[in-house]
């Protein structure tokens, strides 16, 4: 049925679409419609869409423009200008109640566009932001940050995004004490939180053990232009760039944020040709061939780079052959498109803690929900107590592998004590895939928190089937304020198809037990999973309203990420997948169900109106 619907739209010209509903569906299927089309053909389609949208109602514009942002660099300058004008007009829409975009929502979207549009349209975006300056009288820092994004885009406008395909001579680094640059590129965060890059801070500590110096830059905080970044790392011998901080490793980026990361690597290499550039993160782990194709990285590191890169640098300095190191990929060699993961058993209990001295905690924040409304919490940090997950959810990319490896509870609490006594941090989010997988371990961590008088607020990600009332009572005593449950769907068939809980009673029981001990239960919901139906979406929505507990700011829309079982299902349905990461986002919610893009959008609209939770 879905293929029949998609084929109907593939055979249509934009001018032949009779209703706004058809236009919304057409744009929702745009990634499939334009697959394998020439750049010129795509540009013509986009020009027709932007022209048609000018005559549409605001709701159609809103959802359509959110999709078109992903294509704006393929639009001509005139179409880009029309999209910008339509986007800025949405602030006056008021068709979707709380869904309606405010000035800050509009500004954030414009910032996304700024790095992808022509110079004249960059100036137009800047002019618009200044016209709204009065709205930021009490938030001047936010306004200055938005302007900085656009100014950087204007400054970097002339930088060509070119891959430099050259071999780096590793012998230049033999026998030296090195300066190692660590970079977290701009945009690699969510809209609701910006958490410390625990991966890069751990890597820094491991590198320092051998006497090397760290040159650190989290550009999500500093907001340097590409030109300035390239100069910043002048002093470095080696530059490490992640595409996925560990708090995003499961749901890695497949949009403009990844493109900007590759552009960052290319811009640095163009200026710093004599520097060794190393790429790491989820994308490097899954498809080093794609990372080499789209970036100028000399070496690509797979899997747990916070340990492996430190080991590899020592091998280089000692003139050992790094070809003998698992998970190290070197430019110029051929790598299979899908490689079997290898997860070494690193020592997670070393004496060294993450290099927290490299960051200012005032610059980071988490998300706290009250009455289902998001508020930012500053002086926030994350903790990784275990790595791995033995469950096999079909939608999940399990970066750490199926073997669960734990730090000792004493080692975890040692780090908590450091943060409590030496920093301003008072809120900790455990980013373990399932903090309560081993109940005895989780209980011991909680008991040690109490014994050591660590008065902090804690939250974690857990499964509904790995908590019980006794454990939750212990967690509440340790001051766990909230827990994120992977609910996904309240329709049993959809959830079982995803290899999650067999019945909804497991979810309800966990939520009720949480409430009983005073911990706020919070839920991740995924819309558009394989097997989803109109009835299952409605059932989940009704249950969410009935339970009256918070859900994530942006309800997750199913994307078939490489490394998951559902990606293989998507590949069977959409054969054009596999040559890049961006196409994954173009088929979100389209895999193995009969839901149309408009139906997904209408459901999102209801979720965005968060007032039903009291």
Please describe what this structure looks like:
The protein is of the alpha/beta class and 614 residues long. 43% of the residues lie in helices and 13% in strands. The chain has 25 helices and 16 strands. The strands form four sheets. The protein has a six-stranded mixed sheet, sandwiched between helices.
- Strand order, sheet with most strands: 2-1-3-4-5-6
User: What is the tally of helical segments?
Assistant: 25
**Helical residue percent?**
40-55%
The unreliable regions are none
Compact description:
By secondary structure, the protein is an alpha/beta fold. 43% of the residues lie in helices and 13% in strands.
List the helices and strands and how they pair.
Blueprint: H1 2-10, H2 20-28, H3 30-33, H4 39-53, H5 58-68, H6 77-89, H7 103-114, H8 119-131, H9 140-155, E1 179-184, H10 198-208, E2 213-218, H11 219-222, H12 226-232, E3 238-242, H13 256-271, E4 276-280, H14 282-286, H15 288-294, E5 299-301, H16 305-317, E6 328-330, E7 365-370, E8 373-378, E9 380-383, E10 386-387, E11 405-406, H17 409-422, E12 427-430, H18 439-451, E13 457-462, H19 469-477, E14 480-488, H20 492-497, H21 504-517, E15 520-527, H22 534-547, E16 556-557, H23 565-573, H24 582-586, H25 597-608
Parallel strand pairs: 1-2, 1-3, 3-4, 4-5, 9-12, 12-13, 13-14, 14-15, 15-16
Antiparallel strand pairs: 5-6, 7-8, 10-11
Helix pairs in contact: 2-5, 4-6, 6-8, 7-8, 7-9, 8-9, 10-16, 12-13, 17-18, 18-19, 19-21, 22-25
């Amino acid at each position: 049925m879905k293929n029949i619907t998609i084929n109907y739209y593939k055979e249509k010209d934009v001018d032949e679409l009779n209703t706004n509903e058809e236009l919304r569906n057409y744009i929702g299927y745009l990634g499939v419609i334009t697959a394998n089309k020439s750049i010129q053909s795509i540009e013509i389609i986009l020009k027709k869409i932007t022209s048609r949208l000018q005559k549409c109602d605001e709701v159609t514009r809103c959802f359509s423009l959110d999709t078109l942002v992903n294509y704006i660099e393929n639009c001509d300058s005139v179409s880009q200008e029309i999209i910008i004008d339509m986007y800025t007009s949405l602030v006056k829409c008021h068709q979707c109640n709380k869904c309606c975009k405010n000035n800050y929502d509009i500004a954030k979207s414009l910032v996304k566009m700024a790095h992808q549009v022509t110079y004249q349209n960059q100036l137009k975006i800047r002019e618009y932001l200044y016209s709204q300056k009065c709205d930021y009288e009490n938030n001047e820092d936010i306004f200055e940050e938005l302007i900085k994004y656009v100014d950087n885009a204007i400054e970097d406008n002339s930088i060509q995004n070119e891959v430099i395909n050259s071999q780096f001579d590793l012998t230049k680094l033999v026998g030296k004490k090195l300066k190692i640059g660590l970079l977290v590129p701009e945009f690699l965060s969510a809209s609701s939180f910006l958490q410390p890059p625990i991966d890069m801070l751990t890597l820094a500590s491991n590198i320092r053990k051998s006497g090397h110096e760290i040159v650190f830059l989290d550009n999500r905080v500093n907001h340097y232009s590409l030109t300035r970044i390239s100069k910043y790392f002048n002093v470095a011998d080696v530059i490490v760039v992640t595409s996925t901080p560990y708090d995003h490793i499961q749901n890695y980026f497949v949009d403009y944020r990844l493109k900007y990361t590759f552009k960052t690597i290319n811009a640095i290499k163009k200026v710093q040709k004599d520097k060794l550039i190393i790429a790491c993160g989820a994308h490097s782990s899954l498809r080093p061939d794609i990372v080499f194709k789209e970036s100028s990285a000399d070496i690509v590191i797979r899997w747990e780079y916070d340990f492996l890169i430190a080991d590899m640098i020592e091998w280089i300095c000692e003139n050992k052959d790094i070809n003998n190191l698992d998970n190290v990929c070197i430019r110029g060699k051929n790598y299979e498109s899908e490689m079997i993961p290898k997860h070494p058993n690193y020592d997670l209990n070393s004496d060294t803690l993450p290099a927290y001295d490299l960051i200012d905690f005032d610059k980071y924040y988490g998300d706290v929900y009250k009455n289902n409304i998001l508020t930012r919490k500053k002086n926030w940090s994350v903790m990784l107590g275990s790595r791995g997950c033995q469950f096999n959810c079909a939608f999940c990319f399990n970066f750490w592998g199926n073997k669960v490896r734990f730090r000792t509870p004493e080692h975890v609490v040692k780090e908590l004590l450091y943060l409590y006594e030496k920093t301003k941090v008072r809120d900790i989010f455990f980013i373990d895939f399932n903090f309560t997988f081993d109940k005895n371990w989780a209980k011991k961590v909680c008991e040690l928190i109490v014994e050591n008088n660590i008065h902090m607020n804690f939250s974690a990600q857990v499964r509904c089937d790995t908590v019980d009332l006794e454990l939750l009572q212990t967690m509440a005593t340790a001051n766990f304020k909230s827990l994120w449950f992977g609910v996904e769907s309240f329709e049993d068939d959809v959830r079982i198809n995803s290899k999650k809980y067999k019945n909804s009673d497991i979810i309800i029981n966990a939520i009720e037990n949480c409430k009983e001990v005073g911990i706020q239960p919070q839920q991740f919901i995924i819309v558009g999973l394989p097997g989803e139906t109109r009835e299952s979406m409605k059932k989940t929505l009704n249950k969410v309203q009935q339970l009256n507990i918070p859900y994530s700011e942006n309800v997750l829309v199913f994307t078939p990420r490489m490394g998951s079982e559902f990606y293989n299902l998507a590949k069977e349905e959409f054969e054009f997948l596999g040559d890049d990461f961006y196409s994954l986002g173009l088929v979100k919610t389209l895999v193995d169900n009969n839901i149309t893009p408009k139906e997904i959008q209408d459901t999102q609209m209801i979720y965005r109106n968060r007032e039903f939770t009291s």
